[in-house]
Amino acid sequence: MKTFRTQTPKLRPLHLPPHEVRVLANGLTVHVVKRSSLPLVAVRLVVRAGSAFDAADQRGVADFASRILRRGAGGQSADEISEAVDLVGAALGGYANEENAVISLSTPSKHLDAMLGVMGQVVLAPDFPEQEVELNRRRTLAQLANELDDPGTLADRALTRAVWGQHPYAFESCGGKVDVERLTRAQLQAFHRERLGPKVAHLFVVGDVDVEAVTEVIQRTLGGWRGGPKFAPEVPAWPGLQKPGDVVIVDKPEQTQAQVRIAAAGVKRGHPDHFPLVVMNAVLGGGFTSRLVTEIRVKRGLSYGAGSSFDMLSAGGSFTVSSFTRTESVNTLVDVALAEVEKMRLKGPSAKELATVQRYICGLYPGRLETNEAVAGAIADVVHYGLPPDWIAGYRERISAVSVKQAAEAAHRHLFKGERVLALVGNAEALKPMVSRYGPITVLRPTDLE
Question: Which stretches within 196-254 are classed as H helix?
Fold first, then answer.
């Protein structure tokens, strides 16, 4: 019998241009990466002011405010700002995730000075016009209403609540229906005044730029930014699953299929087991040839898709298995998924599986850094999570260095045994007798997740 031997892929060095860092007098940290292959520039302002720091009676304020910063600023209307941006083929927008408020700009390099001026105006002097507040409120409420009709979104939302409990990560960044309805212009102004500031912000500039020249422009446009927090806020610690074993069903009586989610605690971003977990999960459920796809789709025809993933944040993380199937097949799918997780937890991946996914991940990785926007986002992640400076350049080498033993040990440490939660969306009356064996059941209506 032949023994399969892994071979470390021969990797061409991944070189990124030098990453220059400057700190302005007001505390704003500026990161510049010169890439001159195309006359384009990506700019990303990342402020430690995400939804995890929203007050309980103002959930969604960070995302709401970030999205309408450009909808009127410095006395210019939303249409005037849009015209200035669109005229030169640029794009400017904002949003908030769990931990950061983000304002992004992409522009041809010859218009960078002017567009940084527009961006500075938006960041320093947003007007939050009442009509724009109401327009964004209507749009957000319509989006939330549409999401209540989507079984996949409902399953993800129910699972997030079940995993995170009352931790800030449990709540949607955009807030819920009641949250959006009660946000006021005064609260948006207070968010801008109190939670945005240069001392808790990093500005990333990637593209066809001269480092010294662009730093001077940034000094002119954002050097006068004042106020905001002196220190970056910290996300509260997460105590872990509060009700392991619980089963949550979101009742959609008309559904003949059921969305299925199984989740447990994972790891924080930058955990020492990060790379073994990435490789191990690629074998388990991270691709079309993964074990979950093979067992659930190929062998049994239970679903068109299945997968698993780790979500890694600052205060904690989660591990999730996701799929969907006919209502009558739910037990089979859940049992197969649980068995595959347990098999991986006990035995880990094979040498052949490991080598295959290592080649796959290493082959894809350079393509994820092709655009200036992608490079800006990757560097922003390194800075935000305090990752090693060579995280990007050495990513593939770290993936290739994972051994079968390391992947197996990481699986054993971090994949769940019994401490997991199950969320389903479908016909509750049909599902309850089937899934009661997995744990105590809570039935929700879609409107409970508004």
Answer: 211-222
Domains and CATH numbers, the chain: 19-222 (3.30.830.10), 247-449 (3.30.830.10)
Task: Please identify every stretch of the chain with a pLDDT value under 70, giving residue numbers as ranges.
Answer: 1-10
Residue burial 327-339, b: 16+ Cβ < 10 Å; e: rest: eebbeebbebbbe
So what's the pLDDT on residue 16? 78
Would you say 427 and 169 are in contact if contact means Cβ atoms under 8 Å apart? Answer: no
State both tokens at 311.
């979500």
8 Å CB contact between 375 and 206: yes
C-alpha dihedral, 389 to 390 to 395 to 397, nearest 10°: -150
The DSSP bridge partners found for residue 323 are: 260, 306
Residues 6+ apart with CB under 8 A from 328: 430
Pair 111, 147: CB distance under 8 Å: no
* Contact indicator for 34, 209 with CB cutoff of 8 Å: yes
Write the CB contacts of 170 (distance below 8 Å, at least 6 apart in sequence): 160, 161, 163, 164
b/e string for 127-162 if b means 16 or more Cβ within 10 A? Answer: bbbeebbeebbeebeeebeebbeebebbbbbbbbbb
Residue with the two structure tokens 């924080």: 268
Q: What is d(CA 169, CA 241) in angstroms, rounded to the nearest whole number?
A: 13
Count of all residues that appear for the chain in the document: 450
Query: H or E segment at 363?
Result: helix 351-364
Contact in structure between 23 and 375 (CB atoms under 8 Å): no
pLDDT computed for residue 2 by the predictor:
42
What's the rounded Cα separation, in Å, for the pair 322 and 304? 11
| Pairing mode, strands 247-251 and 421-426 | parallel
Give the separation between CA 275 and CA 245, rounded to whole angstroms: 28
Phi/psi of residue 271, nearest 5 degrees: -60, 145
CB-count exposure of residue 114 (10 Å: 0-12, 13-18, 19+): middle
Rounded to a whole number of angstroms, the distance between the first and last alpha carbons of the chain is 58
* Beta bridge mates, 263: 320, 421
CA dihedral for 278, 284, 285, 286, sign (positive or negative)? positive
Q: List the beta bridge partners of residue 247.
A: 422, 441
